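Q: What would this chain look like folded?
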Amino acid sequence: MVAAEGPRQNELNRYGWPDVSIGPVMTLPHSTRVGAIQTIQQPLARLVKVSSLVVALMGAALVMPCQPLMAQTNSADSTAGGKGAKTYCFMRNAGNTHKVSWDAAYALIKRQSASLFKTSPEHASVLITEAVVNNPSAYPDCGKYLGDLYVK
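A: My prediction, written as structure tokens:
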């Protein structure tokens, strides 16, 4: 280290402020300063690379739909209409009236729906009908109850 001559008390520093430092100013040799800068820059460069990777992955997760880790069967019961149809048909086959079965199925469809808007009773009836018609083997003897969904 080389001791440089200290500034005078009445002089301004490079920012235009009065310099009030006391004693001689110590300066480091150029090689030490470069080494110190590189020591700081290397971890920062790694941090920038890692953070940019994290941001890129987060962006990809927002753009691409998330796939479940385990394969999920695409059964009729996986949709809101399928769950409503299963509930409605099970309750009707168990001897419940249309009103009780419908109220339970409609409540389930409203709760399971991912829409921002409320599912109308007419739309819920269509969802149940589509689920039964598209997969009649999953809802045995349920076709005879579908007409009750459209009685006003």
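The longest helix spans residues 30-63.
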